[in-house]
Amino acid sequence: MAEPTRNDSALESITLQNDSGPVITFDGRLCGEHSFYDAETGALTQQKLYITNQGYTAYAVVRNDGRVKERRAYLLKREGQFCRINNGQYDVVVNVRDLLLAVKGLCGLEEDAREEDFFKDAMDIIGQDDAANG
User: Fold this and answer.
1) Residue 113 backbone dihedrals phi, psi, to 5 degrees
2) For residue 43, is pLDDT > 60?
3) Pick the residue with more confidence: 128 or 51?
4) pLDDT band at 119 (very low <50, low <70, confident <90, very high)
């Protein structure tokens, strides 16, 4: 008997709980997730990344230290050279290049090959998007 396979392109209705604003609901699919435990604080953090049916990215993070559970959710929409980030209550618009610099810092990428590879790939994608949108 053949083993059932998962259809990665199947969309489902997803609701992300959000302590900093209203819940965020969309049709989409999970495209990645990661969990890590901080032994110093005793907190477990779970992150999930989704693609919506409209092509946006949704990001959810839940942090629980056994006493306090924090839930945050964001929608990210690419608009040409800018990225609109919404937490269900507020919009922030950031230049994509500035956003990549922030990601670099948050990822701890410094002057090494990983940084060069990361930015080369990211800038190639931006250039392709710019050509398609321009």
Assistant:
1) -65, -35
2) yes
3) 51
4) low
